[in-house]
Amino acid sequence: MDAKSLLSVSSQNTPIPSLLNPKNSLSLSLVQSRKWVSFRTKNLLAPQTVRYSRRLECINSVQKVKHAVDEEDTKAGIKKKNLAVFVSGGGSNFRSIHDACVGGSIHGDVVVLVTNKLGCGGAEYARDKGIPVILFPKSKDEANGLSPTDLVAALRKFEVDFILLAGYLKLIPVELTRAFPRSMLNIHPSLLPAFGGKGYYGMKVHNAVIASGARYSGPTIHFVDEHYDTGRILAQRVVPVLWNDTAQDLAARVLQEEHRLYVEVVAALCEERVIWREDGVPIIQTKENANDYS
């Protein structure tokens, strides 16, 4: 069941059927409010059979979702990918990615947004665009947040292909990295491995770059592992550091390149043009020539 179907059902105050996980008999029910979408779990005491009007069937208590693949959802034989974006702030990279999906530059759809701050600009933008918002992680102040296990289950229900971190400031739990191997990207505002790791985010990165005397900086897109900014590098874009730059000047210049680079990389990811070398280094196949890489 896709995210739009879930939202349309919720807006009509129609009960949403529980989503059954046959492996551990865990039921996930989606709850929609004006602020967020949450998944509540409960144990099932007896098999349930649910029929849902949009091609959703439950057979022997196991739901099998059949999706009709329309011609517009395929590109050169490649199915459109489902994307989950994680944000903690304004979400400018998220907006660029979403715009590119809507405009057709990216062969994918943002089907859900995950945030640790329900009031951030990225979450507000998602709600305005009808994109479901999930709160993660659970905390003392945010009882509606999901646990790592429930987050993985929720992303599975949205049939997420790739996870994109776009200014998400929490460490990704090991449950998520193991559930989505080689399927999670992050963007960092420096040329990693320089000026990366715990504590290096936002303006702290740009202040450190200027203080070091480095002549170049720029965004890095890398795959996510269990630590801050240590995953395999996929793409970088070089930006000059000018002699009279402030941290704000440099941040603005790097952010412009972030928007361009992230869209290009996500487009390649959705078109299945990311190739892994034998030594475990990811490279991007160019659109023009399958034998050329960047």
TrEMBL record:
<protein>
    <submittedName>
        <fullName>Uncharacterized protein</fullName>
    </submittedName>
</protein>
